[in-house]
Amino acid sequence: MENLKKIKEIFSDYKNNSQMQECYISKIGINKKTNKLTIILNTDKFVQIKDMWDFEKYLMERFQIKDIEMIFNYEDGTKIPEVKDEWKNIICYMAHKHPLMKPILLMKSTIEIENNNINVKMHIKGADFLRTRKTDKQVEITIKNLIGKEYKINLEEQISKEDESFEDVIADLEQSRVTIEKE
Q1: pTM for the complete prediction?
Q2: 16: number of CA atoms within 13 Å, CB side?
């Protein structure tokens, strides 16, 4: 990493006191047709997902870039949190980055990790909807890029009686809203 420059050296106007500033830029490229910036970063410490999002927002605003893909390469021995511990942060990150994929539906889910599989237990209906929108594949890519580990995402609906009654209440409220709007 001797020849590589840090983010704080290249983007001197980016002010943030996070580990993001200390990442080395290994490669950066832009696809002008799609207006997508790809940046590969090397670091010896885990960067918080909220700090990643903050840097992405800076790049989007500063350079008028529509899409940014950050890929983190962590040095051997870097302490990286478990996906289970970062799950909600990953989903929030995706909700900001890919709102049309509706990853927010995964917010109340629980996960079980077996080898390289993440079994997502959804407590609301919507697994087929998310698979159709390829949200599961985007979660896999996001985890690979941000945490550096490859997983296969399996979406399952596991709805309890409490969850069903909650969904019925939501459906009734939605129907009431539609009825009121018609009047």
Answers
A1: 0.79
A2: 21
- Compute the 3-state secondary structure of the chain and give helix, strand, coil in percent, each to the nearest 5: 45, 25, 30
β-strand partners of 119: 112, 154
As to burial, measured by CB atoms within 10 angstroms (0-12 exposed, 13-18 middle, 19+ buried), residue 89 is: middle
- Neighbouring C-beta atoms of residue 38, cutoff 10 Å: 15
**Nearest alpha-carbon partner for 24 in 70, 79, 56:** 70
- Rounded CA-CA distance 78/69 in Å is 21
Mind listing the pLDDT tens digit for each residue in 131-170?
999 999 999 999 999 999 999 999 999 877 665 555 565 5
